[in-house]
Design brief:
Belongs to the UbiA prenyltransferase family. Protoheme IX farnesyltransferase subfamily. This protein has 15 helices and no strands. By secondary structure, the chain is mostly helical. Bound molecules: protoporphyrin IX containing FE and farnesyl diphosphate (FPP). The site of farnesyl diphosphate has 20 residues, from helix 2, helix 3, helix 7, helix 8 and helix 9.
């Protein structure tokens, strides 16, 4: 094998290993964490705190995703959506993946412990274990409520960002957690609906398979209504102003419209659109919260 072919193969392998860290999911997780950091302070936080906190949370989230891919490699191999993963194809060795995940997690933990604070380090470790072990091994294969319970891990990032800057948990940070927590069921069940054949092949008890399409679309609609109420709480409690209120109403309006349509006239294409909207929704909602923070026009 020539040096350039070896280099190309090495590059392809590194890229495949990086994919195991689910970079796009982690990007949104880190985005929400950073917004949690910025919201916790009236002015911009010091970079010497913001940078290690961001990197530490990103590395530990990536490590959690990598461990999930490792533990689920046999299930992933049975699903069209995930069969391409290096762990599922067998091109990433078990030892190699475990080593990389532990390394990323350890560096992340050290950064948080040494440069941020112990509370954030422990909470992020608990989040990592909550997703990689509790959700992956104990909830996902056994109950259709897997993501409702396991969603607590996914909802932690803004709270982690908040504690990274302040060293304490506050009601405002818990409100941010609650927003992602109520967002998770519509986010995931929309995907589970149009990917149900995949989940059936893997034998996973996802809600569309255990309780049917109508029950799942109704659950999506009810959680979206709950999400609408929860996203209006920051305004009701006086921690967000007009700009956020208008953005939340528009974003919630679109989410509710899609959820109602989905329940009334189910189509895979609509479920796909709802899933895709859930990602834009969270991105814009948190961006609006941040913009509002810097130009607060109170709703009195
Ligand atoms: C337990 C909670 C969650 C579950 C079960 C879940 C499930 C999923 C699944 C299965 C996908 C893959 C879609 C695909 O391969 O096409 C996905 C994609 C995604 N999720 Fe979630 N998710 C959860 C929480 C979160 C959280 C907390 C965030 C961010 C704050 C997030 C952001 C994303 C993004 C950005 C994508 C798109 C990735 C891409 O396009 O490659 N998810 N989610
Ligand atoms: C800060 C920190 C340590 C965060 C860790 C929490 C974390 C990475 C949450 C992500 C949620 C996620 C990618 C769920 C995918 O579900 P799945 O595993 O069922 O999806 P899959 O079928 O694509 O593997």
């Amino acid at each position: 094998m020539s040096a350039s072919v070896r280099l190309q193969a090495g590059y392809a392998h590194a890229l495949a290993m990086l994919q195991l860290a689910k970079p796009r999911v982690v990007a949104l997780i880190v985005f929400c964490a950073v917004i949690g950091m910025l919201l916790s302070q009236p002015a911009l936080p010091a970079l010497r705190l913001l940078l290690p906190a961001t990197l530490g949370i990103a590395l530990m989230a990536g490590a959690a995703a990598m461990l999930n891919c490792l533990l689920e490699r046999a299930l992933d191999a049975r699903m069209l959506r995930t069969a391409w993963r290096a762990t599922a194809r067998g091109s990433a060795g078990r030892g190699e993946t475990l080593l990389l995940a532990v390394l990323l997690g350890a560096v992340g933990m050290l950064l948080l412990w040494g440069w941020v604070n112990a509370l954030t380090a422990w909470l992020t470790l608990a989040t990592l274990l909550g997703y990689a072990l509790v959700y992956t091994l104990l909830l996902k294969p056994y109950t259709p409520q897997n993501i409702v319970i396991g969603g607590i891990s996914g909802a932690m990032p803004p709270l982690l960002g908040w504690t990274a800057m302040t060293g304490q948990v506050s009601p405002h940070a818990l409100l941010l957690l609650l927003i992602i927590y109520t967002w998770t069921p519509p986010h995931f069940w929309a995907l589970a609906l149009y990917r149900r054949a995949d989940y059936a092949r893997a034998g996973l008890p996802m809600l569309p398979l255990t309780h049917g399409q109508d029950f799942t679309t109704l659950s999506i609609l009810l959680y979206t209504l709950l999400l609408t109420a929860v996203t209006l709480l920051p305004v009701a409690l006086g921690v967000a102003g007009w700009l956020y209120l208008l953005a939340a109403l528009a974003l919630d309006g679109r989410f509710l419209f899609l959820a109602v349509q989905l329940h009334r006239q189910y189509a895979d294409a609509l479920a796909r659109r709802t899933f895709s909207w859930s990602i834009w929704y969270l991105t814009w909602l948190f961006a609006a919260m941040l913009s509002d923070h810097y130009c607060l026009l109170p709703v009195s």
